[in-house]
Amino acid sequence: MKKELFAMLGLFAGICMMAQNFTLGTNLIKDRKYQSENRQYFLIFQNDGNLVVYNRRNQPQWDSKTQGQGARAIFQGDGNLVVYNFSDRPVFSTNTVNKNATSLEMQDDGNLVIYNRRGNALWSSYNDPNRNDFGESGDFNKGTYSKGNIYKGFEFVKGEKIYSENFKYYLIFQTDGNLVMYRSGFKQDVWSTATAGKGRRAVFQEDGNLVVYDSSNRAVYNTGVSLSNVDRLSIQNDGNIVIYNYDNQVVWADKR
């Protein structure tokens, strides 16, 4: 009985580990969701043969374009992520063979990345031509979100930009700890949390509150929202930051 229990625990631990990181030689199981650690994104090798990254709203962020072709997907021992067809010929490849790759990671920002032993990215879904980035290039390939919307439970990564759908505005949690809205191409901010020098982390919490915490985990900024029916925080085309509920009603908007 103990052996069976340990075996089950070992299997569970292995699945949890694979939820974020894939080691060399990992075969992806069809129709299994490999979640990012923050559960905002997942990678899945679908039954139709397509390898896809989705956000929590089930909106595709990237795919291998192998629908109807893919028979197996593997992060090979040579560091190459490959989808093979039923004749065992590659129909998708990251072209990272023999580049000292060590890991494939489904990151919290929605980026699927292959790293080498020095921690350098060899390939990422953000920079892949198959990325579903709404037809724009440039800085947006560092973004992680669905047309200007982020959802509850999301923690910001310093230095990453979240663009509005029309790409005219972006929200960024700066390295100085300030959460700031800018108009693209302009240096003057249009809104900020005024937490420069204080902000350690910023999170759109499960309770619907947007909060910036300091190094002592004390809130130095918050929207004051705490509602169970909050749906999303939107970076709008007009440059406004708005929190909506599931009925698409405004429950908070920035004041300028």
Write structural notes for this entry:
Keywords: Signal. Residues 1-19 form the signal peptide. It comes from Chryseobacterium gallinarum. By secondary structure, the chain is mostly beta strands. The chain has two domains: 2-127, Bulb-type lectin domain (Agglutinin, subunit A), CATH 2.90.10; 139-253, Agglutinin, subunit A (Orthogonal Prism). 7% of the residues lie in helices and 39% in strands. It is built from one helix and 24 strands. The chain has one helix at 2-18, and strands at 21-23, 26-28, 33-35, 41-45, 51-55, 60-63, 72-75, 81-84, 90-93, 101-106, 112-116, 121-124, 149-151, 154-155, 161-163, 169-173, 179-183, 189-192, 201-204, 210-213, 219-222, 230-235, 241-245, 250-253. The strands form six sheets. A four-stranded antiparallel β-sheet has the order 1-10-11-12, with no helix packed on it. The chain has a four-stranded antiparallel β-sheet with strand order 2-7-8-9, with no helix packed on it. Strands 3-4-5-6 form a four-stranded antiparallel β-sheet, with no helix packed on it.
Average pLDDT confidence is 83
Note poorly predicted spans: 1-19, 133-145
In the sheet with the most strands, the strands line up as 1-10-11-12
CATH homology group of the largest domain: Bulb-type lectin domain
Biggest sheet record: 4 strands, antiparallel
Helix content: under 10%
Number of strands: 24
Residues in β-strands, percent: 35-45%
Count of alpha/pi helices: 1
Beginning-to-end CA distance, first to last residue: 64 Å
Shape: elongated
Q: What CATH first level of the largest domain would be assigned?
A: Mainly Beta
- Total individual domains: 2
What's the helix-strand series? Answer: HEEEEEEEEEEEEEEEEEEEEEEEE
CATH topology call of the largest domain:
Agglutinin, subunit A
What's the CATH architecture name of the largest domain? Orthogonal Prism
Quaternary structure classification: single chain
How large is the radius of gyration?
20 Å
Structural class call reads mainly beta
